[in-house]
Design goal:
This protein has helices spanning 13-17, 25-36, 60-69, 71-75, 93-101, 116-121, 128-140, 158-170, 188-194, 203-220, 233-237, 250-263, 283-287, 292-300; strands spanning 47-50, 81-86, 104-112, 144-151, 175-180, 183-184, 223-227, 241-243, 274-278, 304-308, 317-321, 336-340. With 351 residues, it is α/β, with parallel strands linked by helices. A 6-stranded parallel sheet has the order 1-2-3-4-5-7. A 4-stranded mixed sheet has the order 10-9-11-12.
Length: 351
């Protein structure tokens, strides 16, 4: 919670992160060394991250202290740079100059929404214009820009969340994180929830919303660093979570849903055996969380085979070999049907 005097309705960083106290300099050093001992050195980009609070909201002397503290690992080459999270209203030219001089490469802003009314209801204390100005200044100063968003805040709709995603793309963000809103203990949302004034998205709704938002970022080349909250032990146990769409495999469920939307368009005669070729790295998502997409196809067709094809990389598309008279001439053994995924912002609430 350091560096942030605001009381956003969704926020209790101590419960979210499981961190109850500020680490000492020695603890920070030990933490870095512990992680470095487990990370591969070859072909790795290793960064030190300051997260959980608003780093640039700290007094300048404290910012300089923490940045200086980690310089030995940068100078040794063990770490390539620093990334940090902060608020858009805590960015200015002076702060960016200090960060630049001390090896900061990436700045992530908690955007949450680009809708001013939603920002007001969330108690953010800044406007969408503040986000735009900070993001522009960060990019002009040569940093990599991350813009984090939340879905399902008070007053949110799928249309508003998709608009936030589009605004993040327009601001030329290099990366994003998408967090479904959870009701955490000892937050404003917990009070609203108890009063019946706020109901979080269901898990199904959150997965569906993200399945519409993720392709927008992928199409624009914005790297999605995370889908869903990285939880503390308390949230995993349920001690700190009151309500909301939390699942340890949330990201997998979203990508499975995206592939379901693609694969459901495949056509063939019943009982036909089909072979689906795709990027090998996407096979597990295509098969689906707990095999959901394979089961869906097996209800419509006969045997369903998933095969990797190193030529099918980049954007999501598949080739299917379908031995069906619907797709082949008498002299042909099979015909390949190519299906390329195109996000459809109009059909917002399709299952």
């Amino acid at each position: 919670m350091q560096g942030c005097p605001f009381d956003c309705v969704f926020c209790n960083q101590r419960n979210i992160t499981g961190q109850q106290h500020v680490m000492s300099d020695d603890e920070i050093g030990s933490k870095i060394e512990s992680h470095l001992s487990t990370l591969p050195k070859e072909n790795s980009i290793i960064e030190i991250g300051f997260f959980g609070g608003s780093f640039t909201g700290l007094p300048i002397d404290e910012q300089k202290h923490y940045l200086k503290l980690v310089q030995p690992w940068i100078e040794s080459g063990e770490v390539t740079g620093i990334r940090l999270s902060t608020r858009p209203d805590y960015i200015n030219a002076e702060i960016l100059a200090i960060l630049k001089d001390n090896g900061v490469k990436t700045i992530e802003l908690g955007v949450q929404s680009m809708d001013d009314e939603m920002l007001r209801k969330a108690g953010r204390g800044h406007t969408a214009e503040d986000i735009q100005q900070a993001a522009t200044l960060i990019k002009e100063s040569g940093f990599s820009l991350g813009l984090q968003m939340m879905i399902g805040l008070p007053g949110d709709t799928i249309e508003k969340s998709m608009q936030t995603a589009q605004e993040i793309i327009k601001l030329e963000a290099d990366s994003t994180r998408i967090y479904p809103t959870l009701v955490i203990r000892h937050t404003g949302l917990e009070s609203l929830h108890k009063q019946g004034k706020f109901e979080p998205l269901s898990l199904e709704e959150a997965v569906n919303w993200c399945s519409k938002i993720v392709p927008l970022f992928e199409e624009a080349g914005v790297n999605i660093l995370r889908l869903g909250l990285h939880p503390s032990e308390g949230i995993l146990r349920g001690d700190e979570l009151v309500a909301g769409p939390f699942h340890v495999a949330f990201g997998e469920m979203v990508y499975s849903k995206i592939w379901k939307n693609i694969l459901r368009e495949l056509k063939s005669e019943p009982s036909a055996e089909i072979t689906i070729f795709m990027n090998p790295k996407q096979i597990n998502h295509a098969i689906g969380h707990k095999g959901m997409n394979r089961k869906m196809l097996e209800l419509r067709f006969g045997k369903v085979n998933f095969r990797g094809d190193d030529n099918l990389v980049g954007r999501r598309f598949v080739k299917t070999q379908i031995p069906s008279s619907k797709f082949q001439a008498p002299s042909q053994k099979s015909k390949a049907q190519t299906v390329e995924f195109q996000p459809n912002p109009i059909n917002l609430l399709s299952n």
